[in-house]
Known about the structure:
The protein is of the alpha+beta class. It is built from twelve helices and four strands.
Amino acid sequence: MQDFESESFAMGVDHSQKVKATPIATAVARVTVQSMNFRPFSLPRAFIQKRLHSLTGLWLVAFLILHLLANSQAALLVGEDGSGFVKAANDIRTLPYLPVIEIALLAVPFAIHIYWGICALMVSEPNSLRSDGAKPSLPEYPHNHAYTWQRVTSWILLLLIAAHVIQMRFMENPVEAQLGAEKFYMVRVNRDPGLESVAARLGVKLLDSNQIEKQEKELPQTPKSDNPVDAQLYSQQRERIEALKSRPLEKNQVMAVANNFGTAELLMVRETFKLPSMLLLYTVLVLSACFHGFNGLWTFLITWGVTMSQKSQNRMYRISLFFMGLLAFMGLSAIWGTYWISLRV
Length: 345
Ligand code: HEM
């Protein structure tokens, strides 16, 4: 009965009618219930879930392409000091309704993909590994290995994307302050031999804890007058000092103060990719995302019946591999090039 129920569930059949669970009764009930209750325009729930998972996967591939193309500009256009990256980051920052866009177009599709992805992971049975005969084992087929890696990279992505968002979007995100008509964006960075010259080229001020303390001491205790303009300017000056102090500085650290968000973000990325551990983790993240995304693009086209023949699937696999390689190159260049090639000195 369990089988019948789950199958009828998948077929979109209402199983409010229960019948005695003998094999004949089950068979008769299957025909009767399906012919009486099958709703011609209702799609099976499992079918809809799979398609939703698949569509959100395609959407994430589009996002991955845009994300890595923007990031690559921090490094690939050597000599331009990441100006393409700065412009892209500033353009995104000035989009109207940005928080709504971030939630509706990124967080929600991600959540849907991850939820149904985890459901798929729980029931998946990779068959590319050697087995003692208790489980199917067909390691001679390359796509069986791709199936396994699609699942392995799912877990890696789950972990590393969460860490990436927590680090860059929340922990190290530039702190913002306004003074009159000007806005300032601040990030905490470690001193290094090239920092002063990079900061000078980018028009960024570097303030250590002594300089911040001095600025705080120089600030009067009260506004110049009761005039609302003076009062507002004074409160902004205070808030700017608070923003500068919001990240505790060690001896070799400074706050880099930029007059636009993109430049502060570029310095934060440069800072991240100074560290060998980060280079390694982000390399794993980018390679996993590119494999998962483009192997996924290939299975997406099969899921939706676009590539039906063996020939079209083989051709599409070569195309997917080409774009997987190209995008991995873009992503890796941002990781290895932002500090070590483009902005070290
Ligand atoms: C960079 C982020 C990601 C991108 C670009 C992406 C993209 C894709 C694409 C295009 C597919 C193929 C859909 C199909 O065959 O119709 C897919 C499948 C899959 N994704 Fe993702 N995904 C991402 C992150 C994740 C994460 C974090 C998980 C973790 C749960 C995950 C789990 C899965 C699973 C399990 C499948 C295989 C489902 C199946 O074959 O039935 N994905 N992904």
